[in-house]
Amino acid sequence: MGIVQGLSEFLPVSSSAHLVFTSNFYKIFKGIEIVQQSNEEIFFDIMVHLGTLIAVIIFFRKDIMKILKAMFQAVKTKDWSEQDAKLGLYIITGTFVTVFLALGINEIAEKLVYMPSVVGILLIITGFVLLYSEYKSKKTEVKQDVTLKSSIIIGLAQGLAALPGFSRSGWTIAAGLFNGMDRVSAARYSFLLSIPIILGASMVFPLVKIDISEALNYNWNAILAGTLVSAVTGYICIKYFMKFISKFSLSIFAYYCILTGLITSVFFGIYG
Description:
Mean pLDDT: 89
Shape: globular
Number of helices: 12
Order of helices and strands: HHHHHHHHHHHH
Helix content: over 70%
Distance between the termini: 20 Å
Number of strands: 0
Structural class: mainly alpha
Low-confidence stretches: none
Strand content: under 5%
Radius of gyration: 18 Å
Largest sheet: none
């Protein structure tokens, strides 16, 4: 699960869908009924996401420091014209938009976790979104800077990606391409935008859903192992994905999403 999360969080193939598929494949082969996840399973999912968050922070540490310094300076001088300061504001704006939309569809997202055949269909939709974004980007004038408008649109895309099968990185990068960003700039902003939302989710869920006595009985060896593996795998994945998209299109991931979505929706439709 840690490897699956580390690889799929930053590739535009929906990490949540792959976690759903992996856990439910395991349940089917073990003869376990596919039912709503326990608090421990959900907490484990959050922790492996936290592992990939650590990977993002380490990889983009220089960018993060530049943004934070620029924002502190802007607060002092009341001058927000510097691009890194504006980028920080855009990330905050996008995060608020994401939270607003994600909270509205959270109940649906939780139900989809144990409906893997439907998740497969949503993954197919992601594939077509990626294909269309590549087509659209060829007809749009390229600009590297994020704007307030694009930050809101990308934030909405990230909110929709609360649904397993709708790739967070895929939908946010696609939204960036729709708004005239190049693939590298869109991916960089997508990864930076993921930081507050993953950090927030990893803090809020334990406070709201879990009591200490319950958490003491969790399999912490498995949780920590999954988190560590997802962090290491995620860092390696970011490094090579950024190099890949600087030279190649997202089409290969689109075809992967469509094929994987077809296979899983059929498989779980029969055996789920």
